[in-house]
Structure prediction request, 191 residues.
Amino acid sequence: MLSKEEAVKVFTDSGALMEGHFVLTSGRHSDRYMQCAQVLQYPEYTEILARHLADTFRDDHIDVVIGPAMGGIIVAYEVARQLGVPAIFTERMEGEMVLRRGFMIEPGERVLVVEDVVTTGGSVCEVIKVVNTFGGKVAGVGVLVDRSNGKVSFGVKQEAVLTMDIESWEVSSCPMCQEGKLPAVKPGSRG
Ligand code: ZN
Prediction:
């Protein structure tokens, strides 16, 4: 299992977790920024993070791993590879989370739901609903980054590789703006 320090190092080394002076999508400023997709471009880092989740659920008799597109696809694939089970994914069609492409969940199958980042947990809840619709049993939820700082609960066994709460400020009270030494940079597409 990874310690928080080891997890932070993987996210930082891969460029997923950056320190600086950032403008978030909300317009608020922060001193850290997480773009989880950055870590998933490196199979060797992805393998390390996925091992934490695979080890957490190794004794839970998982039959299939499922994640929501896009962020959950690679996580599901690598966790499933390490557990020796199939990986499938849900996707949105006209706003609704569905299983397509002939993917199936058999009634009674034990399903591990994974995702790259949870903030409010909305997408994971939608995937859980899909699993329930097929009669599957959600055996757990595993995420790489829990940005709710542990506040989101799915009512099943759950694990996050990294639990964090990125602090942010209104521009008027941003300590870095007040120091006036760093320009605010807006990275990526998601805050
Ligand atoms: Zn600022």
